# Entry
Amino acid sequence: EFFDQNHGDPHMWGGQFVSGANAVVDDPNSKWYMKDQYPAVLEDYANGPGFILGSEALQFIQNHYDTLFRYRVDDAAVGIWLKNTPTHKYPMKVDMYSHYV
# Structure
């Protein structure tokens, strides 16, 4: 349904987006700490239990898989990896307690 509503945009990135600037974790003991891996302000990213990527975004990740840095926080990693691509962000309700078919 979400995919159809956005016309199958190949540059789609759907998710519940958060501001990377507000998502910085300062505690080096936290599993979400990333300042040692990415000291700059984080890019905005889709946070939570899921997101959807269009074919172009997926193709970019696949084509660059061997050279993409493996960040500790996978949600933030996708934001960093896609920051210079023509990706279109679409807000999407993501709730791990409900399921839509």
User: Anything to note?
Assistant: Residues 32 and 73 are 6 Å apart (CA to CA). Helices lie at 2-5, 55-63, 74-81. The radius of gyration is 14 Å.
